[in-house]
Amino acid sequence: MKKIIKQLIMLFTVVLLAFTAGVSAAQAASPHFKKGGSPVCTVSISGSTATTTCRAVITGLGGEDLLATVTVSGAAVYQCQNGGGNTAPGQNKVVIGPAVAPTFIDSSAIKNGNLTLNTLAAVLTAPSTVTGAEAGCPNPNWTGVNPVVTVTSITLVIEQPPGTEIFNCTKTGTNLTGSVALTC
Questions:
Q1: How far is CA 138 from each of CA 17, 36, 144, 172, rounded to the nearest angstrom?
Q2: Which of 123, 133, 121, 134 has the alpha carbon at shortest distance from 76?
Q3: Contact 43, 121 (CB under 8 A)
Q4: What pLDDT is stored for residue 7 in this prediction?
Q5: 92, 110, 164, 180: most buried, per Cβ within 10 A?
Q6: Coil/strand/helix, residue 134
């Protein structure tokens, strides 16, 4: 009789441990953004360069490494310059990018399933000159100079572990600048 009771206690313990492990795994498999922690990106533009970083506050993460990748695309408008150095406005938007910036987060930085994510900067840079045809200049003797960049698309992909996507957040527009909230 004592042997049967010992076996039942051992069986109960094994079942309880298996159930507890399953609950822990389920809890770790529910990543979400904390209230007020949805992804917001900051876009800073200076002439021919746009720099984009993103921030988010995530909870419910598991204990594995995380990879956050920011991808930025945009366009540049150039002035047309002739051989005499005179300039006139260009007519075309020249597509530039994408610029990609992966940010690797070691699992040790995730505390109790929580992480404040600050990505590395994705830097989108327009070439300093383009052909007159690309810039929309009057003829091929002109050159596109003095680019002014606009950001038209931001994507933030968060993976945990790397290779398993948990969030894909985006924003598109004609001129994204300043604080830009992403939609996931």
A1: 76, 50, 11, 31
A2: 134
A3: no
A4: 43
A5: 110
A6: helix
Total count of residues recorded for the chain: 184
Any idea what DSSP says for residue 183? B
pLDDT of residue 21: 42
- Single out the residue of 47, 45, 39, 111 nearest to residue 70, CA to CA: 39
Quote the CA–CA distance of 48 and 40 in Å, as a whole number: 23
Mean pLDDT by 10 residues, the chain (184 residues): 44 42 48 97 96 98 97 97 93 96 98 97 97 93 96 98 98 97 98
DSSP 6-18: HHHHHHHHHHHHH
Identify the pLDDT of residue 124: 98
Q: What is the pLDDT of residue 47?
A: 86
Burial of residue 35 (number of CB atoms within 10 Å: 0-12, 13-18, 19+): exposed
**How far, CA to CA in Å, does 180 sit from each of 17, 108, 156, 163, 169?**
45, 29, 12, 26, 11
Q: Quick one: DSSP state of residue 51? A: E
What pLDDT sits at residue 29?
59
Neighbours of 104 (CB within 10 A): 12
Q: How far is CA 29 from the centre of its chain?
A: 21
